[in-house]
Amino acid sequence: MKNWIYVFSSTIFLLNSVSCKKDAEPTLITSPTIPAGGLVTPPVMPTLPAPSASAVTSGSGANPSQHLSFQFPSDGVLKMIDIGIIQSGISEYFSTINFNGGYCGLQQTSDPRWNTPNIAISSLWNSSTNGNSNIDYVALGITGEDFGGEGTEKKTIGAYGWQLNHWYRMAVRAWKVSSQIYIGTFIQDMSSGTWKLFSVTDVGASSGFLGSGLDAFLENWDGLGGPIPKAAYLKDAWNLNAQGVWETSTSRQFSANSGDQGRNKDFDNAFNAFYDARVDGYLFEHGGNVKPNSDFNGGRILNLQAQTSQGATPASIPTGSIKSVTASYNSNQVTVNWVDDLATSPQLSYTVQVIDSSGNVVGTSSKTQPWITSVTIPASLNNGNTYTAKVSITDIFNQTSVPVTASFNAR
Asked: What is the architecture of the domain spanning 43-303?
């Protein structure tokens, strides 16, 4: 298995959140229709156990790189997994989702650019046959960078402020437009239930989507952190296939990289993994006084049992919803803005319709763009008449929201 070592490029560029321009002085905005209901209850997650490993005061070398790989029956358009980090250290990568062509996860870094050591990252490799990768969107404060060292790629990276002993859910969603495959990375704070669209990248599409596997890994990329243990729990690995069917893993295999004795030095055997019924999930850890448990029987590979209570479909993925819609008309254009409820499942695509008083659709916009919450639609409306803007979204789990409307006057 490869050790993924990150080399920052000298070329860095900052991308701002993408949105359509509003009219400077809208004619009229009426009170929006807000869907019934209240706050969405955050998911209930198991308490994370206290770590059992300790730091050591002697020895040198890296924490051994290790992988926990899940296999599924089908190619997936979405991969999702929950992670709870219980021990960490500088220059540690908790990669949660490796898919065909890229990976994402949480890191602890000494890089001062983010004003926090606890960041998130998502990367997409260039296709060897179908052209270069691109960055389409990054959240506010996230940076897009070129990356080299083991090939070339686009990397999105920045502050997320994750905390020890908290659960986070990471999801990667793919879709295709013409000859490109787009990859959206989403993170949910399981304490609040709030989702964040982290970034969207794209690359020339080949056959398939994200592949049939999901690989997570731990890596100490500076090669110096061996004395400090790092540990995380993973649970509820999911694959959503192109037919919209949820799949749980058919196999789960842990492996500690072999042949890295020169890098790992005194900590080459400081690795471990096991199924923990207390969280119905998997601990993997390395460094410090960590030792492989007896199930390894002197080896570096271990097959792990299935979770006992994962179920057939994910829990706590409420259908994406819209909190409010506003609309205005100016210079033969209708501008429609909406606010997604980030405590429900995140937007993948949107449909906006402009409807006259007779129920006729006189303008529409519909695209798969999870970052867009404002559109301008060309339309020649009759002055003095009242129109309705209707917005619905489909979330990353293929669930369609209840439409939300706003009335406006054409003047």
From this structure: Sandwich (2.60)
